[in-house]
Amino acid sequence: MLDDGARIGVAASRRLAELSAVTMAPGLTDDELARIEGDFGFEFADDHRSFLSCALPLGESWPDWRSAPRRSLHQRLRLPTDGILFAVEWQEFWGAGWGVRPARMKDALRSANYQLARVPQLVPVHSHHYLPAGRGRHGHPVLSVYQADVKCCGSDLFDYIECEFGRVEPGPAPPTPTVEFWSDLT
After folding, report:
1. Which of 42, 43, 56, 53 is nearest to 9 (CA)?
2. Would you say residue 124 has pLDDT above 80?
3. Residue 140 three-state SS
4. CB 119 within 8 A of CB 181
5. CA proximity to 85, closest of 55, 111, 59, 120
6. Quick one: which of 24, 64, 112, 115 has the most CB atoms within 10 Å?
């Protein structure tokens, strides 16, 4: 019997395959998932893990966890943090819980980097859409992250696949995200 996280991931993978929206390669093995997590220092959320175990979506904007160059995957993992740092430097962004912004940009960037190292890591699902990392987690909304502009793209991974690749008309507004720091930006 599948737990809730596995059930969401399996359903999302099956739905994406039904839609024929993307090429689907064989899913990642447990050894491949463990290697990726070890190489990059995070754990996939349970729903994301089961999604990638069923089948690996390939093509433009999908992270190829099996074959993409390590540097490319590392850059994709860094994009949300790098986007916030860009917003700190060029758009006067400052996180609500970060205290007083230092006057010198060098100090502001160092402080922002310190703060960002303590928030949940986001893992790319597709394009600029992310799920938080973390074994034992599932059912979080998929977030669209571009610098400090964060939006909810689906109430969970299945809903995201349906909204992004299935339905023509969007459904009701997804719930408020529940990811520390990132949810505050929606």
Report:
1. 53
2. yes
3. coil
4. yes
5. 111
6. 112
